[in-house]
From TrEMBL:
Lineage: Bacteria, Bacillati, Armatimonadota, Armatimonadia, Armatimonadales
Site description Important for catalytic activity, responsible for pKa modulation of the active site Glu and correct orientation of both the proton donor and substrate, residues in chain: D131
Keywords, in A-Z order: Glycosidase, Hydrolase
Protein name in the entry: GH43 family beta-xylosidase
Active-site residues (renumbered): D21 (proton acceptor), E186 (proton donor)
CDD domains associated with the record: GH43_ABN-like
Coiled coil: none
């Protein structure tokens, strides 16, 4: 149901500010009103946004022509071939006459780009040409209609096929002939109904005084496009004492109903141009047809039935309207907070593990409080949430009620080209409030976070403090004990360091949750003093850090306020016995420096995030479509925040992952491997910061095996492998898996960086692993692979693929490393092994799960590196054969991992889809994943292990492996 459906009426004006010559476009799921420039909004065409034609928000100006800065009048926009085309009139500064131009944009809010001048007035035209519109005939031919000013008439010309010029003769449609037109006919709107052409136009003077406000909307009709047009008089005229000069109409069709949008002067003194205090406001009334003719419209000033805007049908290839969980504040495995559902104000915000990290948001509108975030306080009603959008670095929620719209944007600036910013543990929560009813409102905003943010268990005692940092009041809360890096494990929250809340010009308070919140609810005031009863358990009188803004005067211009939530963890990781600080601290910066720079950079950083998100969306959509792009937007913050970026003991970055809900290991090789595509595409330095410590560890005396390690320990301590036999023996190791992974990642890193520097530094170790694969890789023994949850498997065909490709990749690297003999040896061996593999794995119309198991099958996702690295060890027919077979094994929510069970691995399915040779083949594998995102009943941060039958989570969540969803993007980038 439309979020405004419970508002059954509206009252004009629907936009109570100057919006002359309005044209309304329906596009991108919204309505967009374009209007003539005004003094208030500066030099440029205005654009407003609405979801329902009734509630509008000003989105600034969208275009100023490069050839004119004056008399920017009457823009109209039409959609064609994925572009928005704007026609408009403006004054030529050289001739003083008005001309008609055309511009294009991909976005309704612009910026539009100038394309051409369509009409230049001839010598007979003293003033110029204005009020242009485009009419597209049923056969696709486009025509430009416009008004010639002196002498007055409405004319038509055919547009060229590219719409950048007009062709053929100028055809007159009508001119002023009636006394009531007062010599003016302008603002044409052409409609075609039942084969007849209906021309709506405005007549009379638009700025006449009260005694003679004759500007109106009139109607004429013709049997043919070129006329003649018979006039039927005015259908919308002034309502004395209420509305004067209604005109310059636009028609929007919703279902079977037509709606007339137009400007009009209210009864506020003589409605003279430039002197009326409100200007020409935007107004809305229904246009009714009877017997094929438009009926007279009354310019209403009393409540009217509102348009019904139905929800668009769901297209599974388009962006999902629902995420399993919504990222809010995402930085690292300990500082990662999500909404585990669709509505921010019906549940508590939660750490990715599911533990409550309460974040309560309240708004007061004209003295009454509502809740926009959190499950409580229950004494106030939730502010109606109307939707949310997720982009790479930001999540925006929208709420509406009591005549105002509230937008709340969570920004975690995880920008891959700026590691200093990416490593800062500071997120922005930005609230924007605007009136939707054209009336002024008194508004106050409130936010708090609880001691849950800094404890593993709410029984742990906490203490809260405040301090002054420059002109900022910074509130902080942390455990009394401060056991820095004291625990390792999986289902844990941080219990050292300090959660912090800061905001410029806010009233701040430390206190008991109920007392602080109730004070704001009651009269907008917080308690007069901080609660100092510390230490006490986080669950005892639930201490909160609160910040509020009061006395906000909200009208149709948005009012914005912001909070910064940050975390000071002092020490972030431990690496081979040494404590490491966050990367942002490496040059001596402290937490006060972070808070200050976070506030100082807020506007520019959020603008950078917005630009980055827009750029990413365009790239991802081009690769896989809108639905795939939305999946990547959801995965971005999860993939990055499942790591911690710290400064190593040598001053170089280390970027360690945590195996979230899969055992808690740190820097696991077979978690880095699937996550790598994101970093290979956007931040190769971070991939190097993942694998460098692993290879360096394998070069210490502690690692005694001829194959690669699995991990570096249990998060947050990277003090040596703990998986399987650890450093002791080969029991439950992953020798072929991890050796193949690191060799392939090294080759991919060399491709991404255009350098073999990393391989050169570690060539002895890498060569040892490649030789191990020569011996063990073709027909692996009964050992684990990355899909260890499925158990041991001997003769694993997909694992063998990985080994063969890794051997080929090493041979390829050797050629660049100046080792020609070794290059020849390994490339030759890889080709020979590939031939044997085809025989061992072949099973008629597909290839087996294991060489000794006929009738089995599995996803051969490792095959992607054959083309990505240009190895070409296997024939293209292998991928084609497998993909054709997979199509017959699809379930509702995707392709199972193999024949043993019906569960899927999200990342591997996308890798498999990357083998596709065409877009339809790719989409056939990806669309069920998009449907799963939309319908899974398990509301947690993306799991990568789920059932394809019912969509339920099997295990794992919030893991970094969703970085693998970017493999198609990497492939497209490398192809370029």
């Amino acid at each position: 149901m439309n979020p405004q459906e419970n508002r059954r009426t509206y009252t004009n004006p629907v936009w109570a500010e100057d919006a002359p010559d309005p044209f309304v476009l329906s596009a991108h799921g919204k309505f967009w009103a374009y209007a003539t420039e005004t003094a208030k909004h500066g030099n440029g065409f205005q654009v407003l946004e609405s979801a329902d034609l009734v509630h509008w928000v000003h989105r600034g100006t969208c275009f100023t022509p490069p050839w004119s800065k004056s008399q920017l009048w009457a823009p109209e926009v039409i959609e064609r071939d994925g572009l928005l085309w704007m026609t408009y009139s403006a004054q030529n500064p050289k001739t003083g006459k008005r001309e008609i131009g055309i511009a294009t944009s991909k976005s309704p809010t612009g910026p539009f780009e100038h394309k051409a001048i369509l009409v230049v007035p001839d010598a007979n035209q003293k003033l110029g040409v204005i009020d242009t519109t485009v009419f597209v005939e049923s056969d696709g031919t486009a025509y430009l209609l416009y008004s010639e000013e002196d002498p007055r008439r409405i004319v038509l010309r055919k547009l060229a096929a590219n719409w950048l010029s007009t062709v053929g003769p100028t055809v007159e449609l009508l001119r002023p002939t009636e006394p009531w037109e007062k010599g003016v006919t302008e603002a044409p709107t052409l409609l075609k109904r039942d084969g007849k052409y209906h021309l709506l136009y405005s007549a009379n003077g638009f700025e006449t005084g009260k005694g003679d406000s004759g500007y109106c909307v009139a109607h004429a009709m013709s049997e043919t496009l070129a006329g003649p047009y018979k006039k039927f008089g005015a259908i919308l005229a002034q309502e004395p004492g209420r509305v004067y000069g209604p005109g310059h109409q636009s028609v929007v069709t919703i279902g079977k109903d037509d709606w007339l949008l137009y400007h009009g002067w209210s009864d506020q003194g003589a409605p003279r141009y430039g002197s009326n205090p409100t200007g020409r406001t935007l107004r809305l009334d229904r246009l009714v047809w009877q017997d094929g003719m438009p009926q007279p419209v009354v310019a209403s000033t009393t409540p009217q039935p509102a348009p019904h805007v139905p929800a668009a049908p769901r297209d599974p290839s388009q962006p999902s309207h629902r995420a399993p969980a919504i990222p809010l504040i995402t930085h690292d495995p300990y500082f990662s907070v999500w909404a585990f559902g669709d509505n921010l104000n019906t549940d508590w915000a939660r750490h990715w593990t599911g533990a409550v990290n309460a974040l309560v948001g309240l708004i007061r509108v004209d003295g009454t409080a509502y809740r926009w975030s959190g499950q409580g306080p229950q004494s106030v009603a939730p502010f109606p949430q109307t939707g949310y959008t997720i982009s790479a670095t930001q999540t925006r929620f929208t709420f509406e009620g009591q005549g105002v719209r509230l937008g709340v944007t969570f920004t975690s600036p995880l920008l891959p080209d700026d590691l200093d910013v990416l490593s800062r543990p500071a997120s922005y929560i930005t609230a924007e409030v605007v009136a939707t009813d054209g009336k002024p409102h008194d508004v106050a905003l409130y936010l708090d976070i609880t001691g849950e943010w800094c404890v593993n268990d709410v029984a742990q005692p906490v203490a809260a403090t405040r301090r002054k940092v420059g002109n900022l009041e910074v509130l902080a809360i942390g455990t009394a004990e401060q056991p820095v890096l004291g625990k390792t494990g999986d289902n844990l929250r941080i219990d050292w360091g300090y959660a912090q809340l800061s905001s410029e010009s806010a009233e701040t308070r430390i206190g008991t949750d109920t007392l602080v919140r109730d004070g704001f609810i009651r009269d907008g005031k917080l308690p007069s003093a901080d609660d100092t009863r510390f230490p006490r358990p986080a669950r005892e009188d639930w201490p909160v850090l609160a910040a509020s803004f009061t006395g906000l005067k909200v009208s149709t211009r948005p009012v914005t306020r912001r909070w910064v939530v940050s975390y000071d963890d002092e020490f972030s990781l431990e690496h081979l016995g040494k404590r490491l600080r966050g990367w942002w601290r490496r040059n001596g910066a402290g937490i006060n420096d972070l808070v200050q720079v976070a506030h100082k950079d807020a506007d520019s950083l959020i603008a950078r995030c917005t630009a980055f998100d827009k750029k990413m969306l365009a790239e991802w959509t081009a690769v896989g479509g809108a639905g795939y792009a939305q999946l990547l937007a959801l995965a971005w913050r999860q993939a990055i925040s499942a790591h911690k970026l710290a400064a190593g003991t040598d001053g170089q970055p280390v970027f360690f992952s945590k195996e979230n809900f899969s055992n808690g290991c740190i820097a696991t090789v077979d978690v880095t491997y699937p996550s790598a595509p994101l970093f290979l595409r956007y931040a190769p330095a971070l991939l190097k910061a993942m694998i460098e410590p692993l290879v360096a560890y394998a070069e210490t005396l502690r690692w005694k095996f001829p194959f690669a390690p699995h991990d570096l320990g249990t998060y947050p301590k990277a003090n040596g492998q703990v998986y399987g036999g650890g450093e002791r023996d080969e029991r439950d190791q992953m020798p072929v898996e991890e050796s193949g992974n690191l060799l392939l990642l090294t080759a991919a890193l060399a491709r991404a960086e255009g350098s073999v520097g990393f391989a050169k530094k570690h060539e002895k170790t890498l060569s040892t692993w490649a030789k191990y694969l020569l011996e063990k890789g073709l027909d692996p023994e009964n050992q684990l692979c990355t899909d260890d949850f499925a158990g041991h498997l001997a003769h694993n065909a997909n694992l063998s693929l990985k080994a063969i490709l890794a051997i080929g990749a090493w041979g390829q690297l050797c050629e660049r490393l100046g080792r020609p003999d070794e290059s020849k040896q390994f490339l030759s061996a890889a080709r020979e092994m590939a031939g044997k593999w085809l025989t061992l794995a072949g099973d008629g119309d597909h290839f087996r799960l294991a060489f000794d198991r006929p009738g089995t099958w599995s996803q051969k996702y490792n095959l992607v590196w054959d083309t990505l690295l240009g190895l070409n060890l296997f024939p293209p027919q292998l991928a084609r054969t497998e993909l054709a077979f997979y199509q017959r094994r699809q379930m509702r929510y995707g392709l199972p991992l193999d024949n043993r069970r019906t569960y899927a691995k999200l990342d591997w399915t996308v890798w498999t889809a990357t083998l596709a040779g065409s877009r339809p083949e790719f989409e056939a594998l990806v669309k069920p994943l998009l449907l799963w995102v939309e319908e899974t009943p398990t509301r947690v941060p993306l799991t990568d292990w789920y059932e394809t039958t019912d969509g339920k989570q099997v295990g794992f969540q919030a893991r970094s492996v969703v970085g693998g969803l970017y493999l198609p993007v990497l492939k497209a980038h490398w192809k370029r």
